[in-house]
TrEMBL record:
UniProt domain Electron transfer flavoprotein alpha/beta-subunit N-terminal: residue ranges: 4-188
Alphabetical list of InterPro entries matching this protein: DHS-like_NAD/FAD-binding_dom (IPR029035), ETF_a/b_N (IPR014730), ETF_a/FixB (IPR001308), ETF_alpha_N (IPR033947), ETF_asu_C (IPR014731), ETF_asu_C_CS (IPR018206), Rossmann-like_a/b/a_fold (IPR014729)
Protein name, per record: Electron transfer flavoprotein subunit alpha
Keyword Lipoprotein attached: no
Lineage of source species: Bacteria, Pseudomonadati, Myxococcota, Myxococcia, Myxococcales
Matches recorded under PANTHER family: ELECTRON TRANSFER FLAVOPROTEIN ALPHA (PTHR43153), ELECTRON TRANSFER FLAVOPROTEIN SUBUNIT ALPHA, MITOCHONDRIAL (PTHR43153:SF1)
Transmembrane feature ranges: none
Database matches in CDD domains: ETF_alpha
Family indicated by similarity: Belongs to the ETF alpha-subunit/FixB family.
Pfam families listed in its UniProt record: ETF, ETF_alpha
SUPFAM superfamilies: Adenine nucleotide alpha hydrolases-like, DHS-like NAD/FAD-binding domain
Length: 320
């Protein structure tokens, strides 16, 4: 029997959605190994959130202390590693968010554990779990076996449906925190949240994205996004040109999204862009060039000038 420890993420007084996708991944490992899922919840003043997680039928271990107020990996990692040891956890995982990517490698180092990042699914039989993960911008899927007794992983949230609430809640346990704030070499300098009326890119049901074809004019992209209640994304070419903010970038070195509808306008469809959006349920491409590679993966393709097609689409959406 092996325990699976999933690290929860929270913000604004609530558990982040990504946690429930990571939880589902943990539950799949537990099913394969016959183990039990535990959740680590760390922060300051987070005890009340323990019950929200326990509702999913998992045991929640809450480390609530002032030193854990900010998501500083240096402070959080020893608490998680000690908890993993105390539970005899065979697997420790989290969502592959900015925080998960920062924190879990430190946890792995402390546990002397091998790690698989951006995991898309699991394989293996006979109780051993292998990790399926993308390589070369998602053009190759590797089946990775981790040889160390403890295995650490981050999961791509778009690949796992969120966990469902259970009939019977799990227990909530307090975790002692012995981290000495004065020993930390990392200091929290501030947090500047980007406030937007639009949905968060990685959580949006619809994304409208623009590329170099916009020539820096995103008005048509943003107007269609607003008509659809969508988030706005961009190719790296648009971001590198300084036309739009960094956090709009979709792709291998940007965000990975899998909305129900992805509209790519003036984007050629380079493999590095596809790596971040090809899991979308329906892909619509608008491009002047009929030979643009994006049409090879699009469900609907429109060979058109985006400056004419997008306002026409937005007008139809508004009229409907
Ligand atoms: P282009 O390739 O220049 O395409 C512009 C398209 O717009 C063309 O197809 C053109 O026909 C069309 N067009 C022009 N005018 C119009 C119009 N009026 N109406 C309609 N269509 C029009 N890229 C990413 O996007 N995300 C990443 O995360 C990423 N990571 C990378 C990592 C590495 C290591 C490397 C090497 C590259 C990465 N790239 C990434 C860059 C990627 O290779 C491409 O250069 C980039 O995606 C191209 O952006 P684009 O499609 O907007 O521009």
């Amino acid at each position: 029997m092996s325990n699976v420890l999933i690290v929860a993420e929270h913000g604004g007084g609530a558990i982040r959605k990504s946690t429930f996708h990571a939880l589902a991944a943990g539950q799949e490992i537990a099913r394969r190994t016959g183990g039990k899922v535990h959740v680590a919840l760390l922060g300051k003043g987070v005890s009340a959130l323990g019950a929200d997680l326990a509702a999913y039928g998992v045991d929640v271990h809450v480390a609530d202390a002032p030193v854990l107020e900010h998501p500083i990996a240096e402070a959080l990692a020893p608490v998680i590693a000690d908890l993993a040891k105390a539970l005899g956890a065979s697997h420790v995982g989290a969502a592959a968010t900015a925080q998960g990517k920062d924190l879990l490698p430190r946890v792995a180092a402390r546990l002397g554990a091998g790690m698989a990042t951006e995991v898309l699914g699991f394989g293996g039989d006979g109780g051993g779990v292998t990790f399926r993960r993308p390589m070369w911008a998602g053009n190759v899927l590797a089946e990775v076996e981790i040889a160390t007794p403890v295995k650490v992983f981050t999961v791509r949230t778009t690949e796992f449906a969120p966990a469902q609430k259970a009939a019977a809640p799990g227990a909530v346990h307090p975790v002692p925190v012995t981290v000495d704030a004065s020993s930390l070499r990392t200091r929290h300098a501030g947090f500047r949240e980007v406030k937007s009326e639009r949905p968060e890119l990685t959580e949006a049901r619809i994304v409208v994205a623009g590329g170099r074809g916009t020539k820096g004019d995103f008005k048509a992209i943003e107007a269609l996004a607003d008509a659809l209640g969508a988030a706005v994304g961009a190719s790296r070419a648009a971001v590198d040109a300084g036309w739009v903010p960094n956090d709009w970038q979709v792709g291998q070195t940007g965000k990975v999204v899998a909305p129900e509808l992805y509209v790519a306008a003036g984007i050629s469809g380079a493999i590095q862009h596809l790596a971040g959006m090809k899991g979308s349920k329906v892909i619509v491409a608008v491009n002047k060039d009929p030979d643009a590679p994006i049409f090879q993966i699009a469900d609907y393709g429109l060979v058109a000038d985006l400056f004419q097609a997008l306002p026409a689409l937005a007008a139809k959406v508004k009229a409907s």
